[in-house]
């Protein structure tokens, strides 16, 4: 089969690999029909996530058709069209039994501090991902769901992470009617978090980024008020000014490890790998939210330490909430929102790239060329 | 203003927002939010028909975090440790918990060693690494490289020059070292 393969920082190529095989009785092998590159894939691509091995196939956003199933699989049969959450989880451990699917304890031998994620380094379990023609899907009875007939394929693939994560992040904000919500980052997750904040009853949604084309999308897609932080000497002061010097009620970090806005923070993390991530957006969230406010962290950070302003967070009495999204828990309600016309996920898709050209796709996305917001990956097996 | 007790007045009422924004307030009631409360105990919810999963066969020694009591019943089998980087990775897992910076720094170091080992190994295959095609920079000419950057207030432009240094730098350094080595050998032979 053809698969994207990591060759070292900033370098990937497409190679011929063996089709994955059933390794556990509840495995399925899925023929991938549509995938995507996530902003967090760029952290791997840039060599930021420890234990990212040459030869690994990335990709945790994909849908496909069941090709084979293991002997204990009851819910799927070959030929089923499925959407697969980015979380790999057993459904039965302490955490899964409480709905914390992204924190499953039975699937990641390499770490207890994170669950397992398709194609997201050995730190996240050492599973190959879906930027390929076939992928092994563990616990086929738990994660994958048959795609409803009415659902568009592009909407389905975006539900496997970006939409669910943004929606989850707005919930972590504990938004009450009329709240002012600041979303840091206008990538796909930030856009969906902003859109979801309105569903929760926000009174005002403000989106911050430095890419003008993404801020334009935030205005048109997410009905948000926007500010380009590169146009201000100090975006925190600007946020205070526009919130009557009180600060926002809720701030959502939808940027994560490679945040720009502070050269020292960015270079020491994204370039020199001396921090788990550049916490610029998180620090802005801490400083711009009001005392007693809530911060929701959706941005992905590495497992190493980062220079976060915990003193300010403590002194302001903030509530910090965060997690990888338990994706499947979000789906029933998100399906309703899509059917009601409240969400149209594929409005954020800007590029559709054949698997054979995935190296160019990563570069376009990483360098923010051509107005890129969300690139999808088209496999030949589709 | 925060200097008095009242919350700032809102620019738009809930009724105005409901009229302007599709779905506004659909999840206003926390009971409509699927992740509220955070933990909801329901072991039968997920479709698991086991109390503890069957164990995936361990066909080769599998490195694991020492914070786990045992090898997890299911694990990934992509890219097993190999070469010097594999030795470093196994040591990081065997010796240090996830709570130790040494664990992660060794793994990051192993990643860099792995890249060097793999690049060198590729030169004795029919498909050596090609930094031009593998970095995807061939997409530049056809994807508005100037308009995407010039005239934009992009904060990332400040460190843009570092990217080629990080990508090409190690190749130039390695090439320089190889060249210096070859020269030294030639000089030694001529003597």
TrEMBL record, chain A:
| Pfam entry (one) | ADH_N
Q: Which InterPro entries match?
A: ADH-like_C, ADH-like_N, ADH_Zn_CS, GroES-like_sf, NAD(P)-bd_dom_sf
> Which domain of life does the protein's organism represent?
Bacteria
Give this protein's Gene Ontology molecular function annotations.
oxidoreductase activity; zinc ion binding
Domain Alcohol dehydrogenase-like N-terminal, chain residue ranges per copy: 25-142
Q: Which cofactor does it need?
A: Zn(2+)
What keywords is this UniProt entry annotated with? Metal-binding, Oxidoreductase, Zinc
Residue intervals of the Alcohol dehydrogenase-like C-terminal domain? 188-259
- Please state which protein family the record places this protein in: Belongs to the zinc-containing alcohol dehydrogenase family.
Q: What is this protein called?
A: Glutathione-dependent formaldehyde dehydrogenase
Q: Which organism is it from?
A: Cellulomonas fimi
UniProtKB/TrEMBL annotation, chain B:
Keywords, ordered alphabetically: Membrane, Transmembrane, Transmembrane helix
Compositionally skewed regions (Basic and acidic residues) per UniProt: 7-18, 28-42, 51-62
Q: Which domain of life is it from?
A: Bacteria
Q: Show the segment(s) annotated as Disordered.
A: 1-62
- List all membrane-crossing ranges: 165-186
* Name of protein: Uncharacterized protein
- Organism encoding this protein: Cellulomonas fimi
């Amino acid at each position: 089969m053809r698969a994207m393969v990591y060759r070292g920082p900033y370098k990937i190529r497409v190679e011929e690999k063996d089709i994955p095989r059933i390794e556990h009785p509840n495995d399925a092998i899925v023929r991938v029909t549509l995938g995507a590159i996530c902003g967090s894939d760029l952290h791997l691509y840039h060599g930021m996530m420890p234990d990212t091995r040459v030869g690994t196939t990335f990709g945790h956003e994909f849908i496909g058709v069941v090709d084979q199933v293991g002997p204990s699989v009851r819910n799927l049969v070959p030929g089923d069209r499925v959407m697969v959450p980015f979380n790999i989880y057993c459904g039965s451990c302490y955490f899964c039994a409480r709905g914390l699917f992204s924190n499953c304890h039975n699937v990641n031998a390499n770490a207890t501090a994170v669950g397992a994620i398709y194609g997201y380094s050995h730190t996240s379990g050492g599973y190959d991902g879906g930027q390929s023609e076939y992928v092994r899907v563990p616990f086929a009875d738990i994660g994958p769901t048959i795609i409803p007939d009415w659902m568009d394929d592009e909407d389905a693939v975006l539900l496997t992470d970006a939409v669910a994560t943004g929606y989850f992040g707005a919930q972590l904000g504990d938004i009450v009617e009329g709240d002012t919500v600041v979303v840091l980052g206008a990538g796909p997750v930030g856009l969906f978090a902003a859109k979801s904040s309105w569903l929760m009853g926000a009174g005002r949604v403000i989106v911050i980024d430095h890419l003008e084309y993404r801020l334009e999308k935030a205005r048109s897609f997410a009905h948000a008020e926007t500010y380009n932080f590169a146009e201000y000497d100090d975006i925190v002061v600007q946020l205070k000014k526009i919130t009557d010097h009180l600060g926002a009620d809720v701030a959502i970090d939808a940027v994560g490890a490679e945040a720009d806005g502070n050269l020292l923070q960015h270079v020491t993390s994204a370039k020199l790998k001396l921090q788990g991530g550049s916490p610029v957006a998180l620090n802005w969230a801490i400083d711009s939210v009001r005392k007693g406010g809530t911060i929701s962290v959706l941005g992905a950070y590495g497992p190493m330490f980062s220079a976060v302003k915990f003193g300010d967070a403590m002194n302001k009495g903030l509530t910090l909430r965060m997690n990888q999204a338990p994706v499947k828990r979000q789906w029933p309600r998100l399906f309703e929102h899509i059917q009601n016309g409240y969400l149209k996920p594929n409005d954020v898709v800007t590029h559709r790239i054949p698997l054979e050209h995935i190296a160019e796709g990563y570069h376009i996305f990483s360098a923010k060329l051509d107005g890129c917001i969300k690139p999808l990956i088209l496999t030949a097996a589709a | 203003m925060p200097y008095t007790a009242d919350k700032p007045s809102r620019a738009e009422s809930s009724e105005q927002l409901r009229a302007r924004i599709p779905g506004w307030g659909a999840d206003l009631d926390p009971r409509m939010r699927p992740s509220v409360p955070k933990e909801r105990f329901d072991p039968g919810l997920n479709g698991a028909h086991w109390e503890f999963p069957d164990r995936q066969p361990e066909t080769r020694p599998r490195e694991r975090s020492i914070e786990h009591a045992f090898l997890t019943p299911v694990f990934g089998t992509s890219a097993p440790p190999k070469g010097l980087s594999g030795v470093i990775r196994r040591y990081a897992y065997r010796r240090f918990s996830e709570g130790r910076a040494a664990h992660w720094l060794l793994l990051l170091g192993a990643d860099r060693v792995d890249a060097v080992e793999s690049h060198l190994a590729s030169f004795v295959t029919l498909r050596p690494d090609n930094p031009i095609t593998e970095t995807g920079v061939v997409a530049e000419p056809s994807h508005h490289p100037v308009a995407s950057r010039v005239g934009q207030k992009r904060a990332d432009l400040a460190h843009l020059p570092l990217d080629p240094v990080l990508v090409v730098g190690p190749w130039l350094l390695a090439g320089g070292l190889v060249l210096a080595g070859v020269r030294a050998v030639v000089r030694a032979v001529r003597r």
